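Hey, resending since the last one bounced:
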Amino acid sequence: MPSSLRLSATDFDLVTAARHIVEDAFALVPGERLLVLHDAPRRDIADALWGAAEDVGARVMRFDIGLVGARPLTSLPAPLVAEMRQAEASLLVIGRDEAEAPFLVDTASEAAASGLRHAEMIGTRRRGMIAGFAVDRTRIVEMGRKLRDRLQPGALLRVRSPAGTDLEVRLPATHRWWERTDAVRGAKAAAGASGHPVESLPHASLTSHQAHVRGTFVADASVGTARGEVMGLLGVEALRLEIEGSMCLGVQASDSALQRSLESLIRVEPSLARIGAVHFGVHVGLLDAVGEIATDLTLPGVHLSLGNRGGEGPFPTRVEVGLAGQKADVDVDGVPLVRAGRIIVT
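The structure tokens again:
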């Protein structure tokens, strides 16, 4: 009996999502090796990926990072380097800890130097993985292309949400989108620690590192910090940011620990106050937020990241904090494009 069929007896939805990762996101072929670096709480994800890979004749090497040292890891241990150099692709699926920023940088740099197809699922658990990989990738790719054609250089995006978002995003005349809708691409060796883009799964967004942002943004879906991971779906405990000139001027949250954690990150690394990325989610199969940032950033609509880890721009940062809202309306040059978190392009 195929491995994924044995696993499906207990968790069919997780196995289906694993198949999409193996066959669509990484496009593994017989004989290729995918290294899954995971932590103990995400062993179920690693096991599902192992079964899905075996069914297509590929191989998954599972490695619990907790076996090489106490967390937080602050560098890439030699045993993990050795494992990565035996693979064609690698996936990091662990919980979030800001103290592990150097470890994440080292892992991405080693993947780039080795030419691996590398991606991350930081903070993702079963629910987010299933929601993020519930539909065929071709539908997401098609929607991404449609929206890219609508979101031309010079366009003005206006974003409003019931939670209080009132945001303007201007695309400069030289603007170009990074289309994060296709399969994970092979990394190229980086000139520095932040010289290559970091790919996060699921792939279902258009990302800009050039847009100009001003106004109020309310992250009522999820926030990409360790405290945000613990809180999950924010709802009424949303994080509110005031932005001018693509700079975050103030942060407010009803959860004082969430507010303090973000303010502390910005004090340590002031460039985190900059809006490092604007994400336009194009996940046509994702109807509601799940409270996991990697998946929520693909919700239809506009989301933001503070900082810019591994992307374009003159202000790279060691960490990047994703900020996801929900149920927003988006107009482009006065023309409706998203209503209540639903894309209305035909």
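The chain has a mean pLDDT of 92.

Sorry for the duplicate.
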